[in-house]
Design brief:
heterodimer; A: 13 helices; 2 strands; flat; B: six-stranded mixed beta sheet; four-stranded mixed beta sheet; globular
């Protein structure tokens, strides 16, 4: 006897309708632009002309042979290393200090987090002023402290500019790491810490042997976000130096923008975007896969 | 009807109203976001609104510069809703958009305003693509003036330099007197604009245009000589840390008496006067060596996209090119009016000086448009980057690398037949 045909119920249709909307949005605003960018990267197009010229993988091969492009890749990797270590480390340190219950904790919480609420362009404007090499706040304070000989041409020296930008970004983003770590520390069960103290552990041992391992979910978030932020870095660099002087602070996103709108070369800019996509995937995906497994293992335990 | 349906209907009605308003509102997109620049642009728009009852114009600031405006324009073109007019650079910028079929040819309105008579010949050639006007000038600035702090010159006991020898001697005297001799600023444009003085010294006007049309190579002995002259006469004079400053910060250095000279576009005069440092009293200016009697200029124009706003744009252009409209913008912004019928009496001391210079250069047929915009966009931009790099590190190794890089770009442009004769 033949099975009766399964018919979708009213509930099924409701589910489909609810799922359709995000699916359509995902395809329209994520899948389509990605495919479109890949297609564009195989063409020569100025962004305005009605015609595009198919040139195969020329944009990719030209970029791979350009010192300018390779320097931008290097800078992006430098930013990943920096973002994983400095804002994350300082955020953890500040959270650990504040978690000890010092006076004025609420005020410090606001002070530490406040820079993260400022828009990137405003951060750039503030630091552009602070980094004025002769009379800016940074140089002036160093002069007052007798450290004037260490003052630099902060944004104008190709060998220094990246570190100057990193200083500004550290000030800006540390608040996020601090907040996540601080919330994580406050969620650690007090009995774990108390038990360690009763057993005679020093504060240092309590932190590294008890608190820090239990901060694992917070660490996953902070490191993941830091790596992603480093790869998509654009606004602060563009607003402060436009990738200069002479490409020295350029990252892939600013190079992409310069090629697309500064030089009317949409095809090559799209090739940079695809390279960025691939490089970000190579750097970040192993971390995400590894962390996902750790989370699954933790949940299983 | 349910409450939610009422709300949805209300939302749709509001959206429809907004769309109708946007269509009726003729927008002028520009990137003059603040200060004297915004005041000038608002005055220009006010002049156009006063001149016509038929259309209403409003300015829309696109924050940033020409690059950000291009990005916004591209989106507008793709969406089929461009502004009625927008602020554009001259020459290759116009050519790119015209070649892309996005610009409306301004032949009719150009004839109506008598463009061939009211604008100097040197100005006309950079708004026409193959003889067809695609832009109408409204904002002209000279970029070959050196501003100097009068008190610093007095204390150093120096006269206004007239050639390269006296210029470098002035640098030495200023340095001895405790001043940074010559200010400069970081960025793609400013070192390049300084370099033009050396380039024109070596190449002359004809050579300058040969470089613009791709006939003269970056590997030519003349270009190498210009680089050497720039290195020996200007780079050696630059203030320490110049590459980490914006042009306004360097202008502040001149105002504060830290720096003796600063070669910058004439908008710097407006900035310094805005800071209370008066032209003719606190500071004065002279044409850079090699450019005496000549004018190198940068200019913004109004461009009109193809679309429903063309008729309104024509009316705007008619009002914006009258002597009154041009003066309204130029006097507030601190630039020169491209229309030769503007009464020189509308300018202050600095503006009158620049007007004299420009008139003299026009009479000598020595008006040179900014080379950056005469070159294909990619090459022009690379030119600016490489000159800044050379100014930071004027070693022979960098010089050799930059020549090789720029010549590579030139050959690529030649292969694509990208150069044109302006």
């Amino acid at each position: 006897m033949a099975q009766p045909k399964s018919r979708l119920t009213r509930t099924d249709w409701t589910h489909i309708a609810f799922l359709a909307l995000p699916a359509i949005l995902f395809v329209t605003f994520y899948i389509y632009p990605v495919i479109s960018s890949i297609s564009l990267s195989l063409h020569d197009w100025d962004g305005f002309s009605p015609r595009m010229r198919f040139i195969g993988i020329t944009n990719y091969t030209v970029l791979a042979g350009q010192p300018r492009f390779l320097h931008a890749v290097f800078n992006n990797i430098l930013w990943v290393v920096f973002m994983l270590i400095v804002p994350t480390g300082i955020g953890l340190l500040l959270a650990a200090i504040l978690d000890r219950g010092i006076r004025g904790e609420k005020a410090f919480r606001i002070i530490f987090f406040l820079p993260f609420t400022i828009p990137a362009v405003a951060v750039a404007a503030i630091w552009r002023w602070m980094y004025e090499p002769d009379n800016g706040l940074v140089t002036t304070v160093m002069n007052l402290l007798g450290l004037g000989s260490f003052a630099q041409n902060w944004l104008g020296d190709p060998s220094v500019v990246n570190f100057s930008l990193m200083g500004a970004v550290a000030w800006w983003t540390t608040g996020f790491a601090f907040l996540v770590f601080f919330a994580g520390l406050r969620n650690i069960p007090t009995e774990c810490v108390e038990a360690a103290r009763i057993e005679g552990a020093t504060p240092w041992q309590v932190f590294w042997k008890v608190s820090f391992p239990l901060l694992w979910p917070s660490t996953i978030i902070v490191l993941g976000m830091a790596a992603i932020d480093a790869m998509r870095l654009f606004d602060v660099v563009w607003s402060m130096t436009k990738g200069g002087p002479a490409y020295s602070s350029e990252v892939l996103a600013t190079q992409m923008y310069d090629l697309a709108f500064g030089r009317f070369d949409m095809g090559r800019a799209s090739a940079v975007a695809v390279y960025l996509f691939i490089i970000a995937g190579i750097i970040i995906m192993p971390y995400i896969v590894y962390m996902s497994r750790r989370v699954q293992d933790s949940e299983a335990e | 009807m349910k409450k939610s349906n009422w709300l949805a209907a209300l939302g749709l009605a509001m959206l429809a109203t907004t769309a109708v308003q946007a269509q009726e509102n003729n927008e002028i997109w520009h990137y003059y976001a603040a200060g004297s620049e915004l005041a000038g642009m608002n005055a220009l728009i006010d002049a156009a609104n006063s001149a016509t009852d038929q259309y209403e114009f409003s300015g829309v600031v696109i924050p940033g510069n020409v690059v950000e405006l291009r990005r916004q324009l591209q989106t507008a073109f793709l969406g089929g809703r461009p502004p009625a007019l927008y602020q554009s650079s001259m020459a290759f910028e116009l050519k790119t958009f015209a070649d892309g079929g996005q610009l409306h040819p301004l032949t009719d309105v150009w004839a109506a305003i008598d463009g061939d008579k009211i604008f100097p010949e040197g100005v006309q050639r950079v708004v026409k693509v193959e003889g067809v006007p695609f832009g109408v000038p409204f904002d002209l600035s000279l970029i070959n003036n050196v501003f100097y702090n009068k008190e610093a010159f007095e204390k150093a006991g120096i006269e206004v330099p007239t050639d390269w020898a006296s210029f470098t001697a002035a640098c030495d005297a200023l340095r001895t007197a405790g001043y940074e001799p010559l200010g400069n600023a970081g960025g793609t444009f400013w070192s390049l604009y300084n370099f033009y003085a050396a380039l024109v010294s070596v190449l002359g006007e004809d050579g300058y245009y040969k470089m613009a049309s791709g006939e003269l190579g970056f590997d030519s002995p003349e270009f190498s000589e210009a680089l050497d002259l720039y290195r020996d006469s200007m780079v050696s004079c630059y203030a320490k840390n110049w590459s980490g400053k914006t042009w306004t910060q360097t202008a502040d250095d001149l105002v504060n008496g830290n720096t003796g000279m600063f070669m910058m576009g004439i908008w710097a005069a407006g900035y310094m006067e805005g800071a209370g440092f008066k032209a003719g009293e606190g500071f004065d200016m002279f044409q850079a060596p090699g450019t005496v009697g000549k004018s190198i200029f940068q200019m913004d124009v109004l461009a009109v996209p193809e679309g429903p706003g063309v008729a309104a744009a024509d009316e705007f252009i008619k009002a914006a090119t009258t002597p009154e409209g041009q003066a309204a913008f130029a006097t507030l912004k601190g630039s020169l009016a491209p229309n030769i019928n503007v009464d020189p009496a509308v300018y202050g001391y600095a503006g009158a000086t620049f007007t004299r210079q420009f008139s003299e250069a026009s009479a000598n047929n020595a008006v040179l448009p900014n080379l950056f915009f005469l070159l294909p966009t990619d090459l022009g931009t690379e030119f600016g980057v490489q000159i800044e790099r050379f100014a930071i590190d004027p070693s022979d190794a960098v010089k050799s690398e930059m020549i090789s890089t720029l010549e590579g770009f030139r050959q690529e442009a030649l292969a694509e037949n990208a150069f044109i004769k302006w």
